[in-house]
Amino acid sequence: MEYKMIGPEHCDQVLEHLRRNFFADEPLNKAAGLCQNGSSCPALEAHCAEAIMDRMSVMAVDARDAKEKGSCKIVGVVLNGILKPGDTAKALSKLDTNGDADFRKIFDLLHRHNLQHNLFEHFDVECMFDVRILSVDSSYRGQGIANELVKRSVAVARKNGFRLLKADATGIFSQKIFRSHGFVVFSEQPYSKYTDGDGQVILPVEAPHIKMQQLYKAICGTDQEEKEQAR
């Protein structure tokens, strides 16, 4: 397996991988009925493309496939973006103009939770390395690819001078992976308690996924770690 940085030139290939392996099966997308396996979702694809443009994302490529067919098969990706203070509030304000009601349900939850549990205020940082999407081809799972993608993301963040990484993990499997790499739970949102004005659950996520976790990892200098330990 080879691991490479994702550039804008890989955008179409990455989106095709996500259509086949992530969009329909991610717990919140599935609960909202956002899209079918293999189908496109313009709002979600724009969200992914935005992260790719930050040039912090990593992909896993099957080297054997490249030798046999002369082309690279993407078997896993982690999409990472750069998050600055005010970005989440801006994204939330723009959400009302999005015509996809199912997309709005998902990102209204994510944005509002991040504003309520504000890592920028807690850690006093000017930007964060935002791990947004972690996906592995269904036929390649169980080979440690997701773990390696997260490991390499931490290395990319450290190389680029980030002090803090963040991830909104919506499923139990990604939550376990992040915690295994030293990420710490900062806040949680049980899906059963995310309800509308009538008390109805907005996103009926299927077990074993019962909550969203906002996780963080402090890196690049002991001053940040000491600050957290003192709290």
Automatic annotation (TrEMBL):
Domain N-acetyltransferase: 134-183
Pathway: Aromatic compound metabolism; melatonin biosynthesis; melatonin from serotonin: step 1/2
GO molecular function: aralkylamine N-acetyltransferase activity
Pfam families, A to Z: Acetyltransf_1
Keywords (A to Z) from UniProt: Acyltransferase, Transferase
SUPFAM superfamilies in alphabetical order: Acyl-CoA N-acyltransferases (Nat) (SSF55729)
Reaction catalysis annotation: dopamine + hexadecanoyl-CoA = N-hexadecanoyl-dopamine + CoA + H(+); serotonin + hexadecanoyl-CoA = N-hexadecanoyl-serotonin + CoA + H(+); serotonin + (5Z,8Z,11Z,14Z)-eicosatetraenoyl-CoA = N-[(5Z,8Z,11Z,14Z)-eicosatetraenoyl]-serotonin + CoA + H(+); serotonin + octadecanoyl-CoA = N-octadecanoyl-serotonin + CoA + H(+)
CDD domains listed in its UniProt record: NAT_SF
Name of the top EC class for this enzyme: transferase
EC code: 2.3.1.87
Annotated coiled-coil segments of the chain: none
PANTHER family per UniProt: ARYLALKYLAMINE N-ACETYLTRANSFERASE-LIKE 7, ISOFORM A (PTHR20905:SF32), N-ACETYLTRANSFERASE-RELATED (PTHR20905)
Protein family membership: Belongs to the acetyltransferase family. AANAT subfamily.
Descriptive protein name: aralkylamine N-acetyltransferase
Species for this entry: Drosophila erecta
Lineage: Eukaryota, Metazoa, Ecdysozoa, Arthropoda, Hexapoda
